[in-house]
Amino acid sequence: MKANQLGSRKKCTLTDVQSAVIETFEDISQLAWLGAGFTLGSVAVILPYGALYSMFSLKYLYIAGVVLFELGPVLCGAAPSMSLLIVGRVIAGMGGTGLYLGGTYISGIGFVWGVGACLGPVIGGLFSVSKATWRWGFYIKLVIGAATAPIYIFNLPNVHPVREISLRYRVKSIDYVGSVLSSGLWVAFSLAFVFAGDAWRWQDGRTIATIIVFGLLTILYMVQQYIVSALHRRLARFPSICFGRGRRFLQPSALRPLIRHSTYRRIIITVGGSLLYVYLKPETPTASIYGISVVLAVGTGLTMQIGYAVATLKVTPEDVAKSLSMQNVNQMGGTTIALIIAVLVFESAAVRNVSGVLEGKGFSDEQIRAVIAGAQSTLFEHLSNDMKMKVILAITEAMQTPFILVIVSGAVVVVSSFAMKREKLFGEIVAGG
Predict the structure, then answer these.
(1) Which of 58, 223, 225, 405 could disulfide-pair with 159, CB 3.0 to 4.6 Å?
(2) CATH architecture classification, 241-433
(3) CB 62 within 8 A of CB 156
(4) Which of 88, 91, 84, 73 is closest to 24 using CA atoms?
(5) Residues linked to residue 200 through DSSP beta bridges, in sequence order
(6) Around 363, how many Cα atoms within 13 Å sit in the side-chain half-sphere?
């Protein structure tokens, strides 16, 4: 549980330190990587890490994840350039996968994650405005990790799921080709859609080539999995394991109409996204924004773990660990896709809106992007009060556009959930790691 709190705190700390980071390195073009780097590192190694969890010592794999997770923030805090900071984020994401896969008590993960999400912006904000600087927003993870190290080193049991199977057979059973193809397609997707429209033009040969590579890797991965993975074909019989995201405080013996409740919760998410799209304006009181955000958070929290709960009930015990790995791919992969698309939509709208307001004022594209990213800028000092309000309104309108994704995706899930089989699930939640 501590691991999940650290993971959510790490993600959310960046929210408040990103403007300070950009001001330090004066590099706006890689803004999207600050958020996407962590989730990319996670989703790229989830499948091989999940396979290792089903075949080797859970304790030592967990400790390996902690080491990577702590190494990433150290590199981020000491990074002399934006590129190295992004590498640190990717490494931390890779380590975070080991911590996330190691969670046994599914019902409590959402709660602990939420606590970390609340603490992250507070801690990051305090460091970003203090003499310690934003770098300690990353270093603090090392301090917390060192303080909690005795717990997982001395108290975690050394559980080995398949000790009786030979090491040679376990090593041979890992899907190396599938792991490489899976990692490659996520990297290609991120490169194509983070750089497109900013560092690279859409018609740039590099953009086109990267998108083609992404498409080819996706097709190859699907064909390879269809041919070599009998597990994939077994799990495909149970489409409901990929539906939804989480059920909090699920009781060991369940007799609940999960699909009906999931529909209600997705409606809450759709309502929250709609309210933010409509009411996110400069004149809207801060308290109202917080209240609407709580509505969106409630819907998210109530659905975040439902896929894991259903997966443990719909597959055989020997497939539980691998089905949970599939859920991790769904969750972290979905986060990566949504984050990249949201940033792409926001940046495009913001640059277009602000450039239109400041047209003919003599400001460079770099200055405009610095303001959009939240970095301190002297741009406002040269504007009249009326022009400042127009710039603020332009940025706020751009902030509304990513919530269209929330509305559309929420509506699609609500409609599609009515077509799913309505059933009550019996059984006991099986720990997959």
Answers:
(1) 58
(2) Up-down Bundle (1.20)
(3) yes
(4) 84
(5) 196
(6) 23
* Residue 269 pLDDT level (bands cut at 50, 70, 90): confident
In angstroms, what CA-CA distances link 323 with 22, 176, 256, 303?
A: 39, 18, 21, 18
Short-list 319, 290, 275, 282, CA closest to 398: 282
**What is the residue whose two structure tokens read 């594209």?**
365
Stated pTM of the model: 0.73
Take residue 351 and report the two structure tokens written for it.
Answer: 């640059």
The predicted pLDDT at position 432 comes to 45
pLDDT for 287 beyond 50: yes
What is residue 179's predicted lDDT score, i.e. its pLDDT?
Answer: 86
Task: Give the whole-number percent of the chain exceeding pLDDT 70.
Answer: 73
Strand partners, 325: none
Cβ–Cβ under 8 Å, residues 39 and 131: no
**Cβ count near 262 (within 10 Å):** 25
Closest to 355 in 3D by CA, of 401, 386, 389, 395: 395
Whole-angstrom distance, CA of residue 160 vs CA of residue 245: 28
Q: Where are the domains of the chain?
A: 1-171, 176-228, 241-433
Is the CATH number of domain 1-171 3.40.630.30? Answer: no
Say how far apart CA 219 and CA 208 lie, in whole Å: 17
Residue 97 in contact with residue 335, Cβ under 8 Å? Answer: no
Q: From the CB of residue 125, how many other CB atoms can be counted at a distance below 10 Å?
A: 17
Tally the residues of the chain.
433
Backbone conformation region of residue 249, classed left if phi is above 0, alpha if psi is from -120 to 50, else beta: left
Q: What is the pLDDT of residue 217?
A: 93
Is the CB of residue 338 less than 8 Å from the CB of residue 405? yes
Neighbour-count burial for 21-47, b at 16+ CB within 10 Å, e otherwise? bbbbbebbebbbbbbbbbbbbbbbbbb
Whether the per-residue pLDDT at 256 is higher than 50: the answer is: no
Give the pLDDT of residue 218: 92
Determine the average pLDDT of the residues in 31-48. Answer: 82
Cβ atoms of residues 141 and 73 within 8 Å: yes
Fold match flag (1-171 vs 241-433): yes
- What mean pLDDT do residues 336-342 have? 86
| Span 159-181, average pLDDT | 80
Which of 85-89, 117-121, 423-427 is the most confident on average?
85-89
Q: What is residue 79's DSSP assignment?
A: -
Q: Which two tokens stand for residue 350?
A: 């913001």
Q: How confident is the model at residue 213 (pLDDT cuts 50, 70, 90)?
A: very high
Those residues with Cβ within 8 angstroms of residue 419's Cβ, 6 or more apart along the chain or in another chain: none
